[in-house]
Amino acid sequence: MQALIALSLVQGCGFGIVVVTGVSAVAELTPATKWGKGLGLYGAAVGVAGIIGSPSGLWIADRAGFDWAFIAGAVPTAAVLAGACGATAIRPAPRK
To answer: What share of the chain is helix, strand, coil (3-state, %, to 5)?
Structure first.
């Protein structure tokens, strides 16, 4: 149980970091006139992932076991990390 609590703490800290850096990236990379739309899309992406991801993970764990649930979470994460390593720098949108 202590390991589960510790991992939940790490997950919560990671989520907090992702949200703050994501909002900062949206504000930096979109023109000021489009901040509302950019932040709305970002919020929708984060919210939908949280709403779909948790029940999906529980469903996979119940049907196929926890090994498959962890694999289902690790594969997209590894793909994003691999893509981020090969990404080029993005220039901020000019301010008007």
So the answer is: 85, 0, 15
